[in-house]
Write the structure tokens for this entry.
Amino acid sequence: MFRYILYSGIFLFLISGCSHRFEDNPYSYRTNNNGNYLENHQNDYPNETIYIKQMKLTKINFQKLEGWNKDNKKGSLEAFTRGCKKNRTINIKEICEEGNELHNSSPKNQEITRFFENYFIPYKIIDRDKDSSRGLVTGYYVPFLKGSLKKTKVYKYPIYAKPRDFRRPYLTHREIDKREIDAKVICWVDDRVERFFLHIQGSGMVKLRDGSIIGVGYAEKNGYSYTSIGTYIHRKFKVPLYKLSA
């Protein structure tokens, strides 16, 4: 059995065994003389703490993950199998094949739970500087918007190319929204909120009315520091931080 690391039950992080620090390639695994992976178990990890930059990862038991036995893990399995389709420098073919087979069999939640427990190890993330498990973890996703090459009543929010008169600092988001700027419009989208999150992410995809898809990505920084809209909403409207992401 070959095990990997399950990041707090949410993020998958593939590494080899536990060590004090990663001096060599962390994506290399132990093999026998035939080139096959050695069978690993949780007890094969004598050092139960891993250090990665400002993070300290401490091995824990699956049963200590809050809601582990109750959570619906179908989405996690689907995300894992999608990741298997990517070209990777690590060979997890057999695990991917088993994951795909399980995904295609309309599995029960208990079966998915057993799959993750067989092949992954949970680690608790701790802030090394504060020695605390409380903190902010950010992730990345690709926004997918609907758009048009022509402005209409529906598609009326522009996505601009780099302004011709660009300088730093440039206009703020609010100033750009209130006026036309000297820039080519790449396309128009139907949702200003989704466009805002596209700005935050820095890149995304836009599906045009003819069914074609274009990719867009940020070309410059306006010179202002990033302000989390999630933090603003938390302070302004008292929404709990765990319900916010941006």
Remarks:
- The chain has a mean pLDDT of 78.
- The longest helix spans residues 74-84.
- The first strand starts at residue 4 and ends at 7.
